[in-house]
Design goal:
By secondary structure, the chain is an alpha+beta fold. The protein contains 4 helices and 4 strands; from the N terminus they run βαββααβα. The termini are far apart.
Length: about 120
Amino acid sequence: MADTALFIGWGYPHPGREEKAILVLNESIQYWKQLQQRGDIESFEVAMLELRAGDLGGFALLRGSREKLAALRAAPEFQRELMRASLVTQHMDVVEASLGEQVLQMATMYQADMAELITS
C-alpha cells in the first residue's frame, strides 16, 4: 500500500461558477480514474466537507509512490486539471502527504530533532 499521497484541496466555488465547478469536479474524477487504470496512482478518494467557516470545501487524496506522484505533479495534463479547477473554485492547493509507515518514520525523526533542538 502507498505511503505517499497528494492532497488536493479546494474551497467553495467562485460566486456564479457553481455549475462549472461541479462540471470540473466530475472531469477531475474521470481523470483520476484514468490515472488509477494506467497505474500512475494506486487509488484515490474524494471528500466533500460540510458547510463551515473555513476555506476548505473538499479534497481528493491520490495515493501512490513518491516517484510516480512527483512525475504526475510535473505532467502538463495534471497542471491543466489544476488550472481548470482554480478558475472555478477558491483556495486550490496541492500538498504531498505521508501515510502509513512513513508517518511513523516522520514522527520518530521529529521526536529526535525535538530532543536535540528544543530540550538541549
